[in-house]
Structure formats: structure tokens, C-alpha cells
Amino acid sequence: MADRFTKMHGLGNDFVVIDARESAVEMTPARAHAIADRRHGIGCDQLILLEPSAKADVKMRIFNADGGEVEACGNATRCVATLIGQPAVIETLGGMLRVTPADGGAEVTLGEPVFDWERIPLAMPMDTRDMPVAWDELEHGAAVNVGNPHIIFFVPEADAVALADLGSRIETDPLFPERVNVNVASLDGENQLQLRVWERGVGLTQACGTGACATAVAAIRAGLVASPVTVSLPGGDLVIRWAEGQPIVMSGAATRVFDGETDWARFG
């Protein structure tokens, strides 16, 4: 019997989704990396594996294109919400997420953001609202954990930053023992942000849901915007709502591209 998968994307951030709730699929970093390969595999930014959960409606495991398993992915969560087709609770390594499908997408309620340096995590104590570190023109970053670690830089023009170079350097800097997602953002109107993201273990992507959440939270804390915030990424817009002491709520599109069949044994 052929193994089935669904190809999906959230604003161009694309996924291979495998529903293993009824029939288990063994997934290793090497296999996930092979499946994600765009030349020799199926191709995706992240591989999503759905498994049974004893604590929620479904467990979602997330593997980046490099094969590493990570805690959270906002765009993938919206995609999974549309596959489930009804309000649900999803278990992830980053915590429990509540989802509600909507016309053309979904709303996702994440947990409260974390700002303590130990829980980002960082390698040394520092103010995560205004970090005393710099990489070339990127300085005074803010660190936020929204289920996974992010650093955010507010710049005059996000498109002008050489993120393909700086992103890889910052991601692997020893300051971040678990590596980090790198966000550069600029104001784009009242309560609107333009955002580009270098994703840990992936690289530049069309969209990053957790990056949009982390960036909106950092901008609200800095007094640059007020909730709700529209975050414009290369792949499209997300709307983020957040208030101090409250969970983050993200709304945006999710698209089912096609269903496919293969043999996972082909991928190691």
C-alpha cells in the first residue's frame, strides 16, 4: 500500500504533511531531510508528522528542511487546522495550541510569549527587550520565545537588509545555544509591519507564522504599534493580536495544494 501525504502552504511557507494517526510512520532526521530536498525529494520548508496524542486532539511533530525537529511552526499549525476541519487542540514540543478553522485559513491561539533570557534561551544574561549585541548594521535586537526562539531587529527598510548572509551568521552564533530564527522588520503604516525571516534550519522563507507573532509582540512592547497588528511577509499578510499577560492569537490563510502517494522507504 502506498504511503500518502498532503502538500500544503501557509503564505508560501510550504509543508509535506503526513497523517500518521492511524498508521505509524518512522521519521528520522535523515529521512525528513531527504523528503524535504527540492531536487531529489518531494520538497518543502518543513515536514509535518501528525500522531495520536494522549493530551490533545492530535500531536504535531515538525522537522525543518535540515532534518532537525523543532518546537513550533505557526503556518503549519494553520494548515493542520484546515485538515482537521473543526476546532481542536494540537500538542507540539512548544506547548498546546488551540485552532479554529476559518474561511480560507485558520485562527491559532499560542501560549504567552516568554522574555526571560534563560528561556529564550541565551548563553548569557541580558535585557531581551534591547540586547547589547550587534551583527553589522543589525543591532539592539529583541528576543522573544513563542514556542521557539526568535530575535527581532527593527530597521528603516526590511528589504534592504542582506538577510541571506546575516541570517545564517546570527542563527548559529554561540549566543543562541539552540540556534535562533532571525527577523528583520520595518514600520509599514499604522499598526502594520513589513517582515522578512531567516528560519532556523531552513533559511529565507516566504512566511513565518511564529516570526510574525514574535515580531508583533516585540513591536507592541516597544510602543511601535498597537494590537491588532497586520504583518506583511513576502507570501502575504497575517493578523496578530496580543496584550500583556495574554496568549498570542494569529489569523491567516492556509492552502491545500495536492495529495500524493509515495513509499517512505525510498527516503532512507
Automatic annotation (TrEMBL):
Protein localization: Cytoplasm
Question: Taking the first listed entry, what is the main subcellular location of this protein, grouped into a coarse class?
Answer: cytoplasm
Entries under SUPFAM superfamilies matching the protein? Diaminopimelate epimerase-like
Q: What does this protein do?
A: Catalyzes the stereoinversion of LL-2,6-diaminopimelate (L,L-DAP) to meso-diaminopimelate (meso-DAP), a precursor of L-lysine and an essential component of the bacterial peptidoglycan.
| Positions that bind substrate | N13, Q46, N64, G74, N75, N148, N181, E199, R200, G209, T210
- Pathway(s): Amino-acid biosynthesis; L-lysine biosynthesis via DAP pathway; DL-2,6-diaminopimelate from LL-2,6-diaminopimelate: step 1/1
- EC number(s) per UniProt? 5.1.1.7
Q: Name one Pfam family in it.
A: DAP_epimerase
Source organism per UniProt: Sphingopyxis panaciterrulae
> What keywords sit in the KW lines?
Amino-acid biosynthesis, Cytoplasm, Isomerase, Lysine biosynthesis
Q: Where is this site: Could be important to modulate the pK values of the two catalytic cysteine residues?
A: H150, E199
- What Gene Ontology terms for biological process does this UniProt record contain? lysine biosynthetic process via diaminopimelate
* Catalysed conversion reaction: (2S,6S)-2,6-diaminopimelate = meso-2,6-diaminopimelate
Family per similarity comment? Belongs to the diaminopimelate epimerase family.
Tell me which GO cellular component terms the UniProt record holds.
cytosol
Name under which the protein is recorded: Diaminopimelate epimerase
The answer to keyword Membrane applying to this record is no
> Which GO molecular function annotations are given, in alphabetical order?
diaminopimelate epimerase activity
Assembly, in brief, is:
Homodimer.
* Top-level taxonomic group: Bacteria
Q: Which residues does the Swiss-Prot or TrEMBL record annotate as the active site?
A: C73 (proton donor), C73, C208 (proton acceptor)
